[in-house]
Structure prediction request, 590 residues.
Amino acid sequence: MDYSQFLYMREELSLLAVILIIFLADLFLCKEPKEGVPVRGGKIGLIACVLLGLHTLGNLIPCCGMEHEVTAFGGMYVHTAMMTIVKSVLNVGTLVVFLMANGWLRREENVVKQGEFYLITLFTLLGMYFMISSGHFLMFFIGLELASVPLAALVAFDKWRYESAEAGAKFILLAIFSSALLLYGVSLIYGATGTLYFTEIGALISGGSLLSILGLVLFMAGMGFKISLVPFHLWTADTYQGAPTVVTGYLSVVSKGAASFVLMTVLMKAFADTQLSEAWNIGLFWLIVASITIANLFAVRQQNLKRFMAFSAISQAGYLVLAVMGGTAQGMTALVYYLLVYMVADLGAFAIINVVEQNSGKINIDDYDGLYETNPKLAFLMTLCLFSLAGIPPFAGMFSKFFVFMAAFNAGYQWLVLIALINTVISLYYYLLIVKAMYIKTNETPIAKFRSDNYTRLALFICLAGVVLVGILGVCYNYIDTFAYGME
Amino acid sequence: MIQLNYMLIISAVMMFAGIFGFLTRRSTLAILLSIELMLNATDLNFAVFNRMLYPGGHEGYFFALFSIAITAAESAIAIAIMINVYRQLKDISVGKLEKMKF
Prediction:
């Protein structure tokens, strides 16, 4: 056996090392709670953030010929340079989530289980890594489950809050249901081709056979649940509302981003047959139209801010998947770039929602009336994030939307781009509703003035830097573009 | 020898019985059972395709094995969450899980 192939898995191995160190630190550093003595936070949050930061930086150093596509373990594991970028984007997202979770985890009811939060989150991240780098449906399935089953535990993390448990129940039942649909699709594809390697399936599968079409449809339905595209989105709003706010942020960015990138690579590799690619393009077309339009219409009437962000996330997922159309190299660049930009803007908004909820317990849009009077900095940051989400220039969101539209337009989907453009205008309306609440509306009892903790400030700083700089620095797009690849 | 068709019909019936159960049952535990039925249908599919069509390899069998193990983990988490729901609500029927909607 050639042990050097483990080197190709350095991202997974280094993340595993981080997980083990945090596990041991949690075991030895956190003391047993005693009667009458308040439990202190401990250093575990700091350790987790530092380690994850080191892990992110370490994996960006190029080494051992990983600029090209390499495979390990007989093709089960595939790695391309693009995957390093996607994994790094997910790392940064997780880091921001950790930073904003710190204050919440130091609360009295959570302090004994804060190590668990970091561990479970990192395990889902590991699952996403394996899912992204899979070259075989078994590997893909294990990664997918590792990424979604612990997430249910995270959603139900607030043990004493009923909404959290209800959200967890809804999430886990629909996650298993969608896995079952996806697996049935995979089994039909196995029946049609006799193999489960993506590249071999791509060579053997033919769009003429009904079995492979049915397999493709079920596979896309399963992935649609994970990315929460519209006919499969019913769990999203309830889960996002009930889950702890930091977990909602994680769900809406990191897990969704990983799933949409995987959707693209699998469709490009395994379903590259001409007839089949025509089939999945038609399927995606309607999924995108439904996601963007219906989510926008529902977002307008929401009162709860987390629920509002859920519908905003569904519509953003529609834009993410818009880049998948056609399976071009340009589309892949647009997808990863969109993911990066969406991540900083959405997590920035969630960091503010979280810190406001921690300090005042308020979560409705009405409660944000007059936020500018008491907390002008937070209101300003929230405005920047919402502008970026809506795609107003000069923020990064405008550039990312532009690149996605350009990719879809060049792939030949002009009508789809038109529909998406109209929906961008509608989305502007509901994002501005919050800006209006913060700046224009007056409130007798506004949210009191408070100081954010330093971890949240760092998270907000990262998000602000991303929102302002990623769009202006053209280097980011060009750097991603050098590694992109598409269908032949 | 039993033909492939019959096996596939059984698994398809199991699958759609599971989907029907998922949509109609009122208790979350019964819903979980329906999902298990669906997952078992896929395992059966993998094993049958491997045995009947591609007897050269073992990919289908192994997939079925892994899928059974992962399903067990999923059920464990799902039941743990349901216990948590029961603690707060004293009920696990889906009709009662309605605090958040629309």
Observations:
- Chain A has one domain: 3-31+40-481.
- Residues 3-31+40-481 of chain A form one domain.
